[in-house]
Amino acid sequence: MLKTLHKSLREYKVSSILTPLLMVGEAAMEIIIPFLMTYLIKEIKNIGSEGGIHIGRVVLFACLMVAAAIFALLCGLLGARLSAKASCGFAHNLREDMYNNLQSFSFANIDNYSTSSLITRITTDVTNVQNAYQMCIRMLVRAPILFVAAIIMTCLIEPSMALIFVAAAVVLGVIVAICMFKVIPYFRTMFKKYDKLNEVVQEDLTAIRVVKSYVREEYETEKMKRATQEVYDYSVKAEKVLNFLMPSVQFVMYSTMIILLLVGSDMAINGWGNVDFSNLQALITYAMQILSGVIMVAMCLNFVSMSKGSADRICEVLTEHTTLPKPEQPVTEVADGSVDFDDVDFFYSQKADVAVLKDITFHIKSGETVGIIGATGSGKTSLVSLIPRLYDATQGSVKVGGVDVKNYNLDILRNSVAMVLQKNVLFSGTIAENLRWGDENATDEDLRLAAKQACAEEFIENLPGKYDYDLGQGGVNVSGGQKQRLCIARAMLKKPKVIIFDDSTSAVDTKTDAQIRAALKAHAPQTTKIIIAQRVASVEDADKIIVLDDGRICGIGTHDQLIVSNEIYREVYDSQVKGNDGTGKSIEGGENNG
User: Which of 111, 271, 460, 559 is deepest in the core (most CB within 10 A)?
Assistant: First the structure.
């Protein structure tokens, strides 16, 4: 874990090294000051008895104490500044490294995490590690040095007094260890509850329209209460343990001070041992340093215990490797839009018992229009996800342009395959900015042409600002059908070799759907077009139609061929086109095109 996290220090290694060194300097001065004070007190006593002949030595010790105090102050200030720089920079790099690794994930990797969990890891977990790291490079270095040095100085004054401090430190160490042992499991569980809380919030806000339309505000409020209550419960359990820690430490500390004063005063008064009133003050100061060192260690361990679970969760993301290995000699050009599936089986995970796709074999020529139709859950989206290598086939091969997709440079392959999903995603920004995801160098004329082909030009021209119209977060300022047309235009701008429509015209009327297909046929004749659709009208003029049933191909042919030979296709056609009244009107409201 430490090795993984250490990689994110990079340019902040120097600050991370200098901070402990400065803490050593500060601790050394704090140890020296009581020692100098002992000699200063002795010299002051000598002034009264010997007529002030050692006044120069008094001034010398006083100046040394002032110099030590100033040096300690400078070390402390500079150390605090550098520790803040190192910890904040470390957190910055951690978030950047996690996000960069997330971008390399395949869909199979992403399926291992919930969105809310990833958000918690990048935000809350990194903040916990940042705070713990800052405490470690400052307090966790300074405190042990103070503790050891103070013990040594105490031994030099009176070894028997050091035994009191060692005994107190052992008791405190046991208390801290017990508390940490009990509190770490609570923190680990609490972070999992944070994931659940973020999931509830994200889901509720994303689907706020559905919540309100079904009048489920009260139900969602109760769900939120349960999630926050679970976080509260484990937070309280952890804090109860930690709240026991500090009073226990203070009790041992003050008890030690009382014992020290009783024993030290008796030594000074009765003259046994090496303790007198001049060095009793130094012993008290060292006692405070020893015990405060233990308290600082306890505080550091508090942060470390809280961050341990966070660090583990961060390392899970940082060490996750994509399930899509890079080829040794990647192909950097896609020859054409031909697509070939040869005996393909696909499981979503190695633990899955049932294949999503089984024995899939078909061949698509470059430039062909191919429809894919089948019941919900038949594997349509899973099938097309293998083409741009969002997933890898478990068995068999998938080829684009005559080359296995596993042999391509992944960016080259995906730039040659455009996907338009049913659940359309737009980003904050203008229409033009969103369309240029397809081609960042597209001119205004390119944008207008793509919008025209996607039947989006008319509504764009009626918007205030037109192509500079701000869509808002997730495209909330346009309708579902408008979103779909914008996403189609964005895909067309890529000028891909293969374009996949995953039921992406479901929110537009049949007339607009037909216009989009006609524009594709006219303006992208060399582009292979794969259309997943629920309605037969969207695919009946395709060069071939693939019928899926339970992850298997149960028919391939043209519309006319399948009407005769494939029962599943015929049932879908009859249910949509003939309807229940025999009028020839489709259930979508279009005319019978059969």
Answer: 460
